[in-house]
Design a protein that fits this description.
- The complex is a heterodimer of chains A (304) and B (87).
- By secondary structure, chain A is of the alpha+beta class.
- Chain A has eight helices and 15 strands.
- In chain A, the strands form four sheets. Chain A has an eight-stranded antiparallel beta sheet.
- The mean pLDDT of chain A is 93.
- With 87 residues, chain B is an alpha+beta fold.
- A three-stranded antiparallel beta sheet of chain B has the order 1-3-4.
- In chain B, strand 3 and strand 4 form a beta hairpin.
- Classes of the chains: A alpha+beta (304), B alpha+beta (87).
- At the A-B interface, strand 1, strand 2, helix 1, strand 5 and strand 8 of A face helix 1, strand 2, helix 2, strand 3 and strand 4 of B.
């Protein structure tokens, strides 16, 4: 799991049976008490924008509380936010479908403090993969045992192994860093298996990976807000990023979502057009959603 | 265990958690993704206001306990704090 905190926004991505939404009340109390940010309006909270999403769970009954059921999560979110909309993304009945909750942009807040009105693009690429290639999944299994004594000056084995896995799998080379900006990574290899990493480019762009390699329910996710064209000086696009990620995991199925604020974002077109004839995969679904001031592309693929 | 480690490139690392974490029961892959934009960008934050990044580390630890996550490590950059979490 990962948390990214910026000055004005945060992204929390959690795996397993975590209870992500149970932090909401305390989070908004904290920003009110510590920062003086009060977003309350007629009993609801109205920040600039909220997204909550997840792919459908493999084992929903093992989730805790409201997270067992999308309707319960939506109901819970509606208690906080006044202008939320809930979407099912993909095909109903497919085990790979995806759920999304998004609030209407609070444009009054935009004007309130005289911030820049310049429209900056914001893009997020997410690739959710299942049925990982067995040899590929094996890269994320370790032999160390939990509970080893901690040496005060010794190496941290989980982070050390995570670093090596990142290098060996070339997950640190997903992006062409042509601009030669700062690159930082923080990776952890879980024991007996599993892997998480945060990789940060130019102090503000991240991509994050989470892998559960167990046979039968193997899964890997890749999420990125890296503006690939800018970072690579035009030598790379998100189709190429997708191909590199698929090469690391060789999944049997995957779905890709791409959010973009800029309707003229060229990766939106490229992902829509250039993924029709991938050599190893058949594209089963392509759906475009127009969400207030964002557009969302959803693609689903199966191995040939 | 919450301690700052100046020796590594991490801003924070929890060696004890790292050594003892067992992922055997972490069976569910698909994640829950929550993204909250309090303001459109950093320039839209009220003048003279503190920002999310001025919230103390121990408060994030407490918030994450509600989510059932612990902080394994954290790296600060000029514009972002990136936490790597248990689970």
């Amino acid at each position: 799991s990962s948390l990214f905190v910026f000055d004005h926004k945060l992204t929390l991505k959690t795996c397993g049976t975590t209870t992500t939404l149970f932090c909401l009340e305390e989070l908004f109390r904290t920003v009110r008490d510590h920062l003086g940010w009060n977003f309350c309006l007629q009993g609801k909270i109205n920040p600039y924008k909220v997204f909550y999403s997840r792919r459908c769970f493999m084992f929903p009954k093992k989730q805790q509380g409201i997270h067992q059921n999308w309707d319960d999560e939506t109901h819970y979110l509606d208690q906080f936010f006044s202008k939320g909309k809930s979407y099912l993304v993909g095909r109903l009945g497919q085990t790979s479908h995806w759920n999304l909750y998004v609030t209407e942009t609070n444009k009054e807040l935009e004007a309130q403090y005289g911030g820049t009105n310049e429209e900056e693009d914001d893009e997020t690429l997410e690739i959710l993969m299942t049925g990982l290639g067995p040899a590929k999944a094996a890269q994320f299994v370790t032999t160390r045992e939990p509970g080893q004594p901690v040496e005060s000056d010794g190496e941290d084995e989980g982070h050390d192994l995570g670093f090596r896995v990142t290098q060996q799998t070339q997950l640190d080379q997903v992006y062409e860093n042509v601009k030669n900006v700062s690159f930082q990574q923080d990776a952890f290899a879980f024991t007996p298996c599993g892997y998480s990493s945060n990789l940060v480019l130019d102090h503000e762009y991240f991509y994050t990976l989470h892998v559960t390699p167990e046979v039968g329910w193997s899964y890997a996710s890749f999420e990125s807000n890296v503006p690939v064209r800018d970072m690579s000086c035009g030598t790379q696009d998100n189709v190429n990023v997708m191909e590199r990620v698929l090469g690391v995991f060789q999944p049997s199925d995957f779905c890709l979502t791409f959010f973009s604020r800029d309707f003229a974002n060229d990766n939106f077109d490229k992902l829509g057009k250039h993924t029709q004839n991938l050599s190893n995969y058949i594209r089963r679904d392509k759906i475009v959603y127009d969400l207030d001031d964002y557009q969302l592309l959803y693609l689903r693929f199966e191995r040939k | 265990t919450v301690s700052m480690d100046e020796k590594s490139s991490h801003t924070y690392i929890d060696r004890e958690l790292s050594a003892n974490l067992d992922s055997t029961d972490a069976f569910e892959g698909p994640e829950k993704l929550l993204e909250i934009w309090f303001f459109k960008n950093a320039n839209s934050i009220p003048p003279k206001s503190k920002t999310l990044r001025s919230i103390e580390f121990k408060i994030w630890v407490r918030l994450l306990q509600l989510v059932k996550c612990q902080v394994l490590s954290m790296k600060q950059t000029e514009k972002m704090d990136a936490f790597l979490l248990s689970e």
